[in-house]
DUF1486 family protein
Amino acid sequence: MSSRLDIVQDYFRRVDAGDPSVTALFTENVSFYFPKFGPASGKAALVEFGERIRREVPELVHDIDAFRYIVDDDHVVVEGTESGRLRDGTTWPDGEISQGRFCSVFAFEDDLIRRMHIYVDPDFGNADQARLEALRD
């Protein structure tokens, strides 16, 4: 396993544990994207995002052992599943609409993450009824 895969797995373990030292895995000017948060850059913005998402999602678990990876030069792509609990007590995935699927793309500068884009439907609890009704039978 490459060092970069180890770093990516370490990232997910730290996120799941709510470990603030996760920022040590990133460059100072990291750029990142998360739906509804949008694009941002820098460790301060990454910390702000982490605080916001942790308030909304106090329990988060990634199924690291079942991840699928694509590694190409300085990039690691992860396809996986996650589960958790929202602050209102709602748990996901529900196995029907919410599947807990995500894809994250990491780019590295040496052994630090310089770019991270997370592709996920952040409507973990299926609260967006207008889109559910428009897209489901």
Q: What stands out?
A: The radius of gyration is 15 Å. The mean pLDDT is 93. Residues 3-17 form the longest helix (15 residues).
